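Exercise (ungraded).
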Amino acid sequence: MSTSLEWGLLAPEILLAGWAAFIILIDLFWGGLGKERLGWLAAIGAAAAGGLSLIWVGDTKQFGDLADINDYTTLFRVLFSGIGATICILSARYVRDRLLHPGEYYALILLAIIGANGMAAAHELLTAYISLELLSFSLYTLTSYAKFDLRSNEAGLKYMLLGAFSSAIFLYGIGLIYGTTGSTQFAVIGEVLSGDTSDIEWGMYLGLALMIGGLGFKVAAVPFHMYTPDAYEGAPIPITALISALAKAAGFAFFLKLFAVAFLPLIDDWRYFIAGLSVATMALGNLVAIQQRNMKRLLAYSSIGQVGYLLLGIAALSQDTASALVLHMIGYVVTNLAAFTCVILYYNWTGREEIEEYKGLAQRAPYLALCLTIALFSLAGMPLFAGFTTKFILFQAAADEDMLWLAGVAAFFSFVSLYYYLIVIREMYVGETEEKTRFPTPWLEYTALTVLIAGVFLIGLYPKPVLELVEDGTATIFVSEELDPGEDLIGVP
Amino acid sequence: MEFVLLALIVIPLAVCPLFMLIPSQYPQLSRYLAALAGGTLFALSVLLFAAYEFDGGSGLRYELQWVWLENIGFLGENGITFYLGLDGIGAPLVLLNGVVIFAAVFVSWNIANRTKDFFVLLFLLVAGVYGVFISQDLFFFFFWYEVAVLPMFLLIAVWGASSEFKTFARTKEYGAMKLTMMLVGGSVLVWVAIFALFVEAGAGTYDMTVLREAALDEDFQKVVFPLFMVGFGVLAGMWPLHTWSPDGHVAAPTGVSMLHAGVLMKLGAFGILRVGMTLLPEGAEFWAPVLMAIGVTGAVYGSISALAQTDLKYMVGYSSVSHMGFVLMGLASMNEIGVNGAVLQMFAHGAMTALMFTSVGALYDQAHIRDMTQFGGIAKPMPRHTAFFTIAGLSSLGLPGLAGFVAEFHIFVGVFEAGYWWAGVLGILSAAITATYILRMLSRAYFGPLNEKWAGLKEMRLGEQFAAVLLIAMILLMGLWPAPFINRISETVEMIPGIAG
C-alpha cells in the first residue's frame, strides 16, 4: 500500500468533521446563540465543504487505494453538501420548536454528509462500507431524535434493526466477493470478473446477490423497502427529507460506481435481476402510494417509486444511462427537497401532516401551494419541470440499451403516480377550510424554496449545463483504469 | 415571421408570471391583461395564416431551429432542437387557436373566483396548444402536448361545475380526474412509441424532418403505429376511449370547454397525422381500415348518444365525439381529399363547438339548468343568442354555406374514393342523426310557445356576443370562401408520404 497519503484531498470531509465538533461545542458553551442560528451556522459549514471540494474540478487523484477524488466525487460532494445545507436551513425552525439538543442534531447531519461523500468517493469496498455505516448510523440516530414521540422511537428502532441486518448481508456479500476475486478494489474486481470466472461462479453470484440485497435496502428497493414508510413517518420531517434525498443519492452514487467499475463485466447476469427489482419497486411504490392518507407516507411510497426509475438506469447500465441516471437523481433530489420544504413549512405552522389537512392551502398560503404543486407535477413527470425532462432522457437511454419494455413499464407507472399527486393538489386547491387566516412569510425558508423551484425549472427547461457536468463526472468512472501488474493489491495471495 | 411564430409560445408563457404579479384584489386588471394577450395572439395568428404561402418541399416555412441538447449520450448532432415551423396544416389550426382563445377570454370575463389563477392556467394551456401545432421536433412536440394537458385538472376541478342527475351525480372532481388520467394514460403509449421510434431510426435526433426521411422497417411501423393511433386518439375523442370527453367538457367552465373541445381535441387528430401518418406511412396504411371503422363507429355512436341527451352541454359533448369521428374517418381515407377534409373538419368543428359552448354557457349562467325539456320558446327573450346557437347547429349538421358542409363534403368524397362505401354510408347516416338532434333541440328549447318561466331571460353579455360573432365569422369564412384553407392544406397534405393523390 502506498505509504504517503495526501490528506489534503480529504479537506472537505475534515472540514465537515471539524465543523460538527465546533457546532457541538458552540451549543455546549454558548447556549445564548439560539437553536435557529445554530442551524444556519451548520448550513454555512456544509456549504463551505461543498465549495472547498470545487478545488479538484477536473482532477483525477487518489487517496491511497481508498478513495478517488475526481469529477464524479466532486459532483456528488457538491450535491450532498447542498442537500445538507438545505436541510440545516429547513430544520432551524423545526428544531427550535420541537426538538432538544440541537448541537448533536446538526453535527449528525454534517457527519451524514461525510458518510455520503465517502460512498461516492470510495475506491474499494471497505471504504464504501464504512462510509455507508457512518451515513446510516447518523440517520438512525436522527430518525429517533424526537425522543418523546413514540412514532419517532419506533421508526428509529425499526430502521436501525433492519439496517443492521442488511449491513450484515452486505458485508457477507463483500466477504464473498473478496474471497472469490481476491480484492476489494472495484477496478481489480472488474479486472478479475472480465476474465475466466468459471471456477468462482457460485461464490461470485452469491456475493453479488447479497450485495444487491444490502444495497437494495439502503436505497429502499422492493422487497427491501419495508422500513421506509415507518421511518419516513416517524422521523422528524427534515430528517425524512434528508433520508429521501441524501441516503438515496448516496446509495445510488455508490451503486452506480460499484456496478460500472466492478460488476460491469457480468452485466448480462444481473441486468434482468435488477430490471425485475426495478419493476417491483415501481409497481409497489406507486400503487401503494395511492392508498396513503399521510403526506409523509405518501412521499415515502412515491420515493420508493422513484427508486424504481433509478434502478432502471442501473439495469440498462452504460455510460449514457449512467449520465441520465445521475441527471434524474439530481432532478429528483431538487424536486423532492422542494416538496419536503413545503411539507415542513406547513407542519411548522399547523403541526399537521395528513393529506386531507392540506385543504384550502391555496387560499391560506398561495405561494406555498403553488410551489408544492410544481414539485408534485415534477415528480409525476409533467413538462416544464425537471421530472419530465430527466425521465424522458433516462427512459430513452434505457430504451437505447434494448430495455424498451422497461422504459414502457416506467412510463406507465409514472402515469399512475400522477393520480396520487393530483389528489394532494385537489385538496389544496379545491378543498375549503374554515380557517381563512393567511400564513406568515418566513423569508429565509421561502428563499430556499424559491431556489429549489428555480432548480426544478432549470433542469426542466435547460438541462444542458447540468447534464454536461454530470457527463464529466460519469466519464471518470467509465475510464478503464490501467492496472500496473507490479502494483501490490490488497490481499492478493 | 420566424419570431412571430416564436411569439405564439412566448407571449402566453410570459403573461403567466405577469398575472401572478397582479394583486388579487384587482381582478379587472387581470381581465384586461388577458384580453390584451388574447388579442395579440389572435392578431398574430391571423397574420401567420394570411402570410403563409406554400413554397415547395414539405411546405414548412418560417423555420427557427435552436439546439437544445446535442452530442450527449444517445443524442447526436442536432439531438433535441427547439425547432419551430409552420406548414399548411398548422396554419389553419394556429388561426383556430388564436380565435378560440380570444373568444374564450371574453366568455370567461365574469369569472370572479381567483380570476388571475384562472388566466394563468388558461394561457399555459394555450401555449401548449400552439407549441404542438408549430413544433417540428418530436421531443418538443410531446413536451407541449403534455403542457396542454397539465393545467386541465385544476381548470376543471376549481372553476368547473358538478352535474346532478336523477340517480347519480358527476362531480367536477370526477370529470377533472377522469379527463386528466385518460389523457395522460394515452400519452404513455405515445411516449413509448417515441422511444421506440427514436431507437429504430437510429439518427440520434428527434428532428421530425429528419425522421420522416428515415426508411423505417415496415414491420416496425405496423407495430408502432397503433401506439400513436390509440395514444393520440384518446385526446381526439376516439371511440371507445372518448368517455372523458363528455364528462370533462360538461364539468369544465365555459371558456375551458371552448378551448378543450375547440382546440385541444384537435391535438390528438393532429398528432395522428403529423407523427403517426407522416413518420410511419406504411403502418398507417396497414391500420387505416381499423381507424376507419373506429372513426365511423365514433361518428355514429356519438350522434346517437347526443340524440339521447336532454342536457344541452352533454349533447354538445357527444356531438364533439361524433364530429371527431368524422376527422378520424378523413384521416383513415389516406387520400388527399379525405385528409384535407379531416383538417378542414378540425377547423370547422373547433369554431362550431366553441360557439355552441359559448351559447350553452351563456344560457346556463342565467337559467342554472341545462335540461332542454325545461325550456321552450326562449328565442323571444334571447333572439341573438338563438341566432348564434342556430348558426352553430346548422354548421354542425352540415348546411351548405357554413364550415361544416365544406369539411364533411371533403371527408365523404375521400372516404368513398378510398373504397370504404360502408363507412361513407354510415357517416352520412350519422350526419342525418346530427340534423335530427340539432333541429329537435332547437324546436324544443328555442322555438315554439314561450315557457313563461323564462320570460325574464336577458340577452347574452356583450363580451359573449363579441366572441360569438368572431367564431361565426370563421364559420362563414370557411363556408363561403374555403379556398384559402384548402389551398394551404392540400399543398402540404400532398407532400405527406403515403397519401394517395
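Further reading is listed at the end of the chapter. For now, observe: The radius of gyration of chain A is 22 Å. The mean pLDDT of chain A is 88.
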